[in-house]
Predict the 3D structure of the following.
Amino acid sequence: MAAALTPAPVVEHQADRRSLPPYIDETPNEALERGHTAEVPLLTGVTSHETAAAVTGGYRAKITDSLKNIPNYLDKGMLCVYHK
């Protein structure tokens, strides 16, 4: 029930009686699968103390160790990227 109440894009159709062309005519997942997305560069980074209080214990040590020792760790271990 909670998922139905969260904000989400509304897919519009030609036959929805609005007399306007659809602005969103596919779901975000459909757009990703079909490659209908803009190629926008992404710049990201972290500071040495960012989320220091949120990530603690063994998980923090594992992430820190992986960032130091595994080349391109963020690309291989942390990110899910759609490729066509």
Observations:
- The chain has a mean pLDDT of 75.
- Residues 2-78 form one domain.
- The radius of gyration is 20 Å.
